[in-house]
Structure formats: C-alpha cells, structure tokens
Amino acid sequence: MNILKNAYIFAVIKRIYLKKTYLPIIPAIYALFHLLKNRGLNSATKIIILGILTSFVLTTASLGSYISPVRYFQLISIFIFADYLYTHGKTHEMLLSIKALIIIASIFVILETFTPISLYSNKTFYLFKRVSGITGEPNFSSALLFSVGIFLLYFKNLKWSVLAIILGSFGFSRGFILALLIGLIFLLVKKINKNVLERLSRVVFFIFLSYPLLLEISHQYLPKKVFQKIHDLNPRLKHQLFFINAVKNNPLGIGLGNAKEYYKNNYKIIFKKGPGEKRNEQHNLPTQILSELGIPFYLAFIIISLFYFFRLKNSWPITLVLLPYFFLNGLNEILLYIFIPIIIKYETKENKNFADIFKSRPKWWPQAS
After folding, report:
1. Which residues, other chains included, contact 351 with Cβ-Cβ below 8 Å and sequence gap of 6+?
2. Number of folded domains in the chain?
3. Dihedrals φ, ψ of 142, to 5°?
C-alpha cells in the first residue's frame, strides 16, 4: 500500500482532455486501509469528522430532502488520509512526491503552451492563452501550484518553489495574481521587520476567514452606488450574496456539494438572472463552508482556525497557502489538508499531537488570576 500512500499527488489530476480521471479516489482508498490497520485518529480529526457527520444529518433533516453522501464521504476520507500523513508521513518522502507533481505539471504546461493542444479556450486580457494545467482547470491549477510553491519555500526548497510558481502563472488566475502580490509584500515586510509581518499575516488571514460576514455588512451598509461600483469590478459578488442569503433561509447549510442544484432551483428567486450567467458556485472557500455546511460549522471553523493560528511562530505560510482560494471553492482540494497540518506541526514542535495545542493557552488567552 506504500504505492497508494505516495500516489496521492495524482489525486490532483481531476480532468484530462475535459474527461474525469477519478484519480481523487486514491486517497479515499488509502484512508480506509489506514483505519483498518491503525484504528486510531488524532483527536482533532475525530472532532472534525464528527462535525461533518452532524452537519450531514442536520442539513438533510432541515432541507427535508435527500443529499448525496458521496461528497461527505470524500471530505471525511481526505481528513483521514491527511491524518495519516501528519502522524506517520515522512517529510522527505512528501517533498519528493511534491517535486514529482511539479514535473508532471510542467509536462501539462509544455504540451498546452507549445503544441496545438488547447483544452481551455478562454483568454486573459484577450492576449494570453490560459493553460488548464494539471487539474484540468486553469484557476485551480494556478492555485494548487502557488500553494505548492509556498509549501516548498517554507521547507527552503527555493528552486523548486520558484518553478512551481512560474508554472502556476500560466493559468493567469486572479486568485494567483492576488496571492502572488501579497506574497511579495510579505517578503518585503519580512526583510524589514518579522513582527510586522506576523501582524500583517494575521490581519489578512482574519479578512480571509470573515469574508462572507464582511461582504454582507458591505452590502447592507455601503451606499448602493459605491457597492455597485465594487460589484462591477467583481460580478461574482452577486452570486456570493445569493449563497449568503441561502444560509439565512437554511442556517444548517444547503448541503455539501449541493450548491449547483440549489443554485439551479433557487437563483431566479433572489436575483434576476442576466444573459450568459453561469456562475453557480461560491468562488470563495469561507463562503462555501458557510453556505454548504451551515452557520454552526462555519463558526467552529473560525474559532478552531484562530486558536491554532495564534499558536504559530510563523503564520505567513498558511495565510499564503490559503489565499488563492479567496476566488475559488476548495473543500475538496486535498493538498490544503496536507500542507496546513504539516506546517502547524513544524511551527508547534513542542506539541507532539495535533490536538495537544488546545492544552496550552496562547498569549492572548485569559490567564487565571
């Protein structure tokens, strides 16, 4: 089963020539073997899985309709697989697998850039050919490779990090561009003052987490003309507001993976659909978590994230790994579930167990008198 353990990198290859590969099933299979062999999970993983199962039951009861359990099983299996790598994985093997992923990604980029093969017809700025890349979609390929680049940079693999980010640039993704600009700002600030970098990283991370709340507040209290100008710059805001409104009617969520179906059945009720509009997803990870898993899960997500986040010596890698998903859904992006726990592990070396971080209070936590 060691072959499957190291073959998780192929799970990111979701489509080839616009056809599904079904390679994302590899981590799910290994997760089952992990449970059968080791019969144990970290406490944090158990809590998350319990939360996902509870969300499934409550959301199904709340909507009064059947929700496919496949996406829930997929998400749970990703957490179990990430739990295995966190507990038993070897860093050098992981880095070697990531480098193999970059080589595979470079083959996709070369084929699409320098041959007649064109899997994605859209162009950015009506000038550049967008490369669909290793995931089969340019935005997700750019996001994945940027996160890979940051992960390798954290482990001081500079050459491979730069190569990953260069390959990611061929997707011409807005999320990639935003993350790259903020990454460069972080780099400059780090040269000046590491403490300032840490404060800046926490501010950006908080904005990322609370984006749905900030968007709703802006929509409610900004002058309509001002909000309209902001909307003109990013038409997806209207669709994100639709999913935020969905939570008002369904506080326990619309169901994991149910966004497209809910959108199809309800979008016309909330907003007048414009010609050619096909945006039927949230295009923002926190908004996806809020709308699909509900308010309780979203609040728990924020609380747990902030608790872990303030325990880190360096928070900037996690902030940058997540940033491309400011414009994308990311609940089924397996590398996020691998990179973030591993970085937390190395940033809190005094804690042997992922859940042990809860046993020690961060600096900002109230101390007993």
Report:
1. 357, 359, 360
2. 1
3. -65, -45
Angle of the 285-309 helix axis to the 194-209 helix axis, nearest 10 = 140
Assigned token pair, 35: 């449970």
Q: What pLDDT digit, counting tens, does each position of 150-189 carry?
A: 999 999 999 999 999 999 999 888 889 999 999 999 999 9
Taking each helix axis from N to C end, the angle separating 211-221 and 194-209, rounded to the nearest 10 degrees, works out to 70
Single-letter code of the amino acid located at 58: L
Residue 31's identity, in one-letter code, is A
Is residue 141 included in any domain, yes or no?
A: yes
Half-sphere exposure at residue 354, Cβ-oriented, CA atoms within 13 angstroms? 24
Between 48 and 123, name the one with better pLDDT.
48
**Secondary structure tally for the chain: helices H, strands E:** 16, 4
Q: What is the enclosing helix (H) or strand (E) of 5?
A: helix 2-6
Domain holding 78, by residue range, is: 2-192+337-359
- The answer to the question of residue 260 being in a domain is no
Residues 6+ apart with CB under 8 A from 272: none
Give CA–CA dist 48/81, Å, rounded. Answer: 13
User: What share of the chain has pLDDT > 90, as a percent?
Assistant: 25
pTM value? 0.86
Residue 237 lies in a domain: no
- Answer for the pair 322, 285: CB distance below 8 angstroms, yes or no: yes
Cα distances (Å, whole numbers) of residue 76 to 87, 263, 330: 17, 24, 14
Question: In this predicted model, what pLDDT tens digit does every residue of 65-101 receive, in sequence order?
Answer: 667 788 888 889 889 888 888 888 888 888 988 999 9
**Strand positions, DSSP E, the chain:** 15-16, 19-20, 123-124, 128-129
Asked whether residue 91 is assigned to any structural domain, the reply reads: yes
Tell the residue number behind the tokens 């109230």, with chain if given.
366
Q: How far apart are CA 300 and CA 310, in angstroms?
A: 16
- The answer to whether the CB of 140 falls within 8 A of the CB of 334 is no
